[in-house]
Amino acid sequence: MTIADRQYVEFIEVQKSYDGEILVVKNLNLSMRQGEFLTLLGPSGSGKTTTLMMLAGFEAPTHGDIILDGRSISNVPPHKRDIGMVFQNYALFPHMTVEENLAFPLEVRRMPKSEIEEKVRRALAMVRLNEYGKRRPGQLSGGQQQRVALARALVFEPKLVLMDEPLGALDKQLREHMQLEVKHIHQSLGVTVVYVTHDQSEALTMSDRIAVFNDGAIQQLATPNELYERPENSFVAQFIGENNRLPGKVVLVNGAGCTVEVTGGGVVEALTVNVIGVGAQTTLSLRPERVRINPPNGACANVFPARVEELIYLGDHIRARVSACGQRDFVIKVPNAEGGVGLTPGADIAIGWKREDCRALDPS
Amino acid sequence: MPRAGGVERPSRPATQAMVSLATDIVRTADGVPLKVTLRRVDRARKLKAVALVVPLFLFILLSFAIPIGVMLFRAVDNPEIAGALPNTVAELARWNGDELPDEATYAALAGELQAAHKSKTLGLIGKRLNYELPGVRSKIMAIGRAVTKIEAGPYKDAVIGIDPMLGERRLWTVIKSAGEPYTIFYLLSALDFERTQDGDIVNVSADRAIFRDVFLRTMGISMTVTLATLVLGFPVAYLLASLPARTSNLLMILVLLPFWTSLLVRTTAWVVLLQTEGVVNDALMLLGFVDERLQLIFSRFGTIVAMTHIQLPFTLLPIYSVMKTISPTHVRAARSLGAGPFVAFWRIYFPQTVPGIAAGCLLTFILSLGYYITPALVGGPTDQMVSSFVAIYTNMELNWGMASALGAILLAATLVLYLLYNRLIGIDKLKLG
Predict the structure, then answer these.
(1) What is the value of pTM for the model shown?
(2) What distances in angstroms separate CA B339 from CA A325, B56, B126, B130, B306, one per listed residue?
């Protein structure tokens, strides 16, 4: 086992309740490698921020243990954990200049003055704010403040950095720019990052792995690719990307595949992922871009007639809403390829998809 | 490129001039210059703003600015002698002050004292001169009666014959200086200075000196009260700002409760509590902490306790409202960066509360300077503050010059402290929330 493979952060059967009645975090088991970029993704109230706060030391677990670098930290106060943290609204100290903000974690560690100056200078250079050291946070733009907050969380070289929706207050363009910047800093410094967000595209862009939270529990922990291609339950399928959901009943299970009778009419061949067995209710999940229009004979295991209800032009692709299998909001994404898509509202067409692209998940 | 630019340069200023001429006057669509239109639009807005402010401005002018101006003027205004003895004062202008005035001056004095006796204004003259020469009032009344009997000159010897005081330089020095239209006599007296016969400014004798003590006492009590409210109020403000809204609202009501009862009621309540046979003494005796009853009321202790109680919300509320605006994530951030609880508080939280502390303390200090009822009810004779002397001079002595001088000096001292404060903390840092 090399150092890179060692489990650096571990949550062992962690539970958290504020009022003794409701568990905000239910039996959390999670481990991550050194140098990994892990994102906790989920809707608000799903327990992801509480998990982060327990790791930072601002909330104590009601049950269970948290291990950092081989040592239980449940009884270590926040300032002794050596964990850098970037807050949602930056939390820069308004009465200090940028340099003083960056020097603060070094001063409380009683570093010599010359070393502090050197480290502050390098940290400012890292986020390309060399000229702004003497300014107050209030004199900087949102993106600049964000970069200062990032530099401050990294300047004392913590082994672990936590980020709590750090880009939430920025506009879309700046946010996308900062995502790449954070990712590059992570790659060049090799620090371990736990990142909290509710923005799925942000999670997909930056993470090595994503833990999808819902209702106080991890629904799935996987790489971005895996999460999108192979969601394990209907919450993940719906939360990451877009999908068509067809409720139905399993009529036959045949190894990896199964046959499902869709409630709205039609029988679909699908992959068995999360079904109890024959007779159970299920939800079929199908990505809109995997649906083919008028497929050639034999290309798809599932072919159904459909009627085009609406076309929405989105530049690079066209969203077609069709009615099929008893659903009026069945969505298909058609690439805006050369020669157009050849669809008109009201037209009757055939749609089809492969068995591998249709996943039979838990009913919900 | 530089060559080509050099060749073309001579033509550029002309082009620029033309461009700026063309763009100088920007006009609206219907041809009115833009600036004129803008002024017209702005004027209505400004008028509206002025109309909103005028009532309060007039009120403050009439009830605050003008009275203060009148008070400051009264501190140096000196109309009594110049009005009652105009001729004497005019004659004294020639007097060199080394020996007694001449016959003409005595004649003028005799004539004007006779007139004053007839018009019954002798009392005014006596009262004014009495400020500077204690005991002279009754003598002036007697002289006024006697001087009516002198029918013809020479007056000098006859007048001196009435009272030997009239043959002393001292009285004449006082009449001369009191006859000037403006005087610094009241201001000097309010600082325990007086003028000698030769016009030098000296300290008054120790047994008559009171006001310097009173000013120092006023400042001392105000500072103690300010410090006490800060020490007691800061932790409560912190608690209020950090508790969940439901609990903190309840506590806030308790803090504000004193605001809903009158100052007089609260002060009287302290009388009930602190008196020798009062609740506090009873409790101390019962619990055996003391063997004999303590003098809690009519003392400096009582004054400071009662004033601190009344002033507490004034210090606390600005601090609280500033604390409310400090994001709790600042302290969390400091903790995550490696600062212990105390360092995080002292270096991150506390500096951000300074504007509130500054505002609250300044408010309490300045309000404390003017306390009158509370020291009068729960303080002893040596705990009376400047305002109580102002009240005595205004209501009982009817010496408005002195009352105004005390007020003016208190105002000046406050302004000096305010400037000092501005230099130390900066008035722009003051924040009420």
Answers:
(1) 0.78
(2) 61, 50, 74, 70, 40
